[in-house]
Amino acid sequence: MPTRPTPPPRTATAPPAASSPRVPRRRSYDQFCAAARALDAVGDRWTLLIVRELLAGPRRYTDLHVDLPGVSTDVLASRLKDMERVGLTVRRRLPAPVSAYVYELTPRGHGLLPVLTALAGWGAPELTDPRPTDAVRAHWLALPLRRSLEREDWRGVVEVRLDEGEFHVRVGADAGEPVYGEGAAPEGTAAARLELDVGTCLEICRGLLSVADAVRDGRVNVKRSTA
């Protein structure tokens, strides 16, 4: 009767790779091209929308998560780390008594304002009626509206009041300044306030109506600062 071969002695094995954190390899187009290099830094899903939110100034992680509906906490944390790594954002701690961490754009990150403005202008014709699945935030109209105001030579801080909410934009803001903000402008800073409905605002954002014509037609109520 043949004997069964003796199995080799067992040796200790390393723990599964899954037990140790794995750093994902960041994808690159590997092309010596300015556009490709830019997309290496900002081409990931959510990155430019995070920039959009941070153009309003420093934001806490929880605030970003609220105003980026649909992003998971893991993806948001990963994108913020990537953005810090490539020099678009910094994370800093606010002084006591707040003691919270906020994310803010670096000068390089703020340099994406013309990119977001151009994208907002290019995408504005798609702003007809919200789809049933669309989240809505009033301040998401800030960039396309600011673009329209700049074209009509508005300058300074402009408050915008819609039924859906209120925000303010800084038209002709200095480099590095917050471009817009939720709610009313800080007291004494607004040069004017625009009161209008969202339909009129969308027509202005889409380039179908000028602010001047909307004021003339009574569709926009303008209150100028007397300060």
In short:
The protein has 227 residues and is an alpha+beta fold. Helices cover 33% and strands 16% of the residues.
Mean pLDDT: 89
Question: Judging from the principal axes of the Cα atoms, what is the shape?
Answer: globular
Number of strands: 7
Percent of residues in helices comes to: 25-40%
Low-pLDDT stretches: 7-23
User: Can you summarize the main beta sheet?
Assistant: 5 strands, mixed
Distance between the termini: 108 Å
Output the radius of gyration. Answer: 24 Å
Structural class: alpha+beta
Order of helices and strands: HHHHEEHHHEEEEHHE
Estimated share of beta-strand residues:
15-25%
What is the count of DSSP helices, taking H or I runs of 4+ residues?
9
Provide the spatial order of strands within the biggest beta sheet.
5-4-3-6-7
Description:
With 227 residues, this protein is of the alpha+beta class. It is built from nine helices and seven strands; from the N terminus they run ααααββαααββββααβ. The protein has helices spanning 34-42, 47-54, 61-66, 73-85, 107-110, 113-123, 142-151, 198-205, 211-216; strands at 89-93, 101-105, 156-162, 165-171, 180-182, 190-195, 221-224. The strands form two sheets. The protein has a five-stranded mixed sheet, covered by helices on one side. A two-stranded antiparallel ribbon has the order 1-2. Helix 7 (142-151) crosses helix 8 (198-205). The longest helix has 13 residues, at 73-85. Residues 7-23 have low confidence and may be disordered.
